[in-house]
Write a structure and sequence with these properties.
This protein has 3 helices and 12 strands; from the N terminus they run αββββββββββαββα. It is an alpha+beta fold. The protein folds into 2 domains: 1-22 and 221-253, no CATH class; 24-219, Jelly Rolls. It has a 6-stranded antiparallel β-sheet with strand order 1-12-3-8-9-10, with no helix packed on it. Strand 4 and strand 5 (95-102) form a beta hairpin. Helix 1 packs antiparallel against helix 3.
Length: 253
C-alpha cells in the first residue's frame, strides 16, 4: 500500500474512536441543598439550567443519553420506625417521570424504581407504578437493620437510554443496584423533565439533602462525530506534511 495512503488511514483509525466516544455533559443543578420539606413531605428544586431543547423529555433521548442525580443525605434524630419511605427522582412540575421509592430497612417489601403518570407529586411514593415489576421489590435499602440510621449517606440515581429501552443504576450507602431494559408508557416519556424531587416520609422527618448535582450527558449526533473525524484526519495529515515538507495525499498515484 502506498505509504501516504497508509498514513491517511492510520490517522483515521486513531481519531475515530475519540470522536464517537466523546460525550457532552450539562450541569442542570450544582451543589444544591434541600433542608425544608413542606407539609406533604415534599422538597423540590427546578433545574437552574434546562435540558437541551432537543432533549426535554425521555421520548427525545437518544441512545447513550444519561440523566443523573447525586446527593448526600443526612439523618438526624430519626427513630427506628421503618413504616415510612423516602422517594427521589425527576419531575415535570408535579408529574413524576422516574423515581426510586425507598423503604429504609431490608425487611420492607416495596423498595423499587417507579414512574407516575398522575399530576400530584405528593404521591410519588406508593402512588407510582413499579417499572420493573413485583420481582424487583426489596432490592435496595439504607441499612440491614435500621437501628436507627442516623448517619450520612451518598446516593446516586441514573437513567440511560438504550437500544431496547432504558437502564438505571442506583447507589446508596455503598451498595449499587442495576435495573435493565426498563420501559415506560408514552405519557411518562413525553413529560418535559425540569426538576429534581424528594418526598420525605413522616418517620424520616429530620432529613437534609446536600451536594445535590443533576447532570445530563449526551452523545454527539453521527454527523457531528463524522465532522470531528474529518477535521482530526486533516489536522494529522497537515502536521505530517509540515514535518516532512513533502507529503501530499493521493489515492490515484
Amino acid at each position: 500500500m502506498n505509504q501516504r495512503i497508509f498514513i491517511f488511514f492510520q490517522s483515521l483509525a486513531l481519531i475515530t474512536p475519540f470522536a464517537y466516544s466523546h460525550a457532552e455533559s450539562t450541569n442542570l443543578l450544582e451543589n444544591a441543598t434541600i433542608s425544608n420539606f413542606d407539609s406533604f413531605g415534599l422538597g423540590r428544586l427546578t433545574f437552574t439550567t434546562s435540558l437541551p431543547s432537543d432533549r426535554n423529555s425521555m421520548t427525545e433521548f437518544q441512545v447513550g443519553d444519561t440523566l443523573a442525580m447525586s446527593f448526600t443525605m443526612t439523618f438526624d434524630s430519626v427513630s427506628s420506625d421503618i413504616t415510612d419511605s423516602l422517594s427521589f427522582g425527576f419531575q415535570q412540575n408535579d408529574a413524576t417521570s422516574y423515581y426510586a421509592y425507598l423503604l429504609p430497612g431490608d425487611d420492607a417489601n416495596s423498595s423499587d424504581v417507579r414512574y407516575r403518570t398522575g399530576g400530584n407529586g405528593r404521591y410519588m411514593a406508593s402512588g407510582g407504578t413499579p417499572v420493573t415489576g413485583a420481582d424487583a421489590y426489596n432490592t435496595f435499602f439504607i441499612s440491614n437493620d435500621f437501628t436507627p440510621p442516623n448517619d450520612t449517606y451518598s446516593v446516586s440515581l441514573t437513567l440511560s437510554k438504550t437500544i431496547s429501552g432504558y437502564d438505571s443504576a442506583l447507589s446508596i450507602g455503598g451498595s449499587s443496584f442495576v435495573f435493565t431494559d426498563l420501559t415506560f408508557p408514552s405519557a411518562v416519556e413525553e413529560l418535559d423533565i425540569n426538576r429534581a424531587a424528594f418526598r420525605n416520609g413522616d418517620a424520616l422527618g429530620n432529613l437534609a439533602i446536600t451536594n445535590l448535582d443533576v447532570t445530563f450527558s449526551t452523545v454527539p449526533e453521527p454527523g457531528d462525530s463524522a465532522l470531528l473525524v474529518v477535521l482530526g484526519v486533516l489536522g494529522s495529515v497537515l502536521l505530517i506534511r509540515k514535518k516532512s515538507g513533502t507529503l501530499r495525499i493521493s489515492i490515484t498515484e
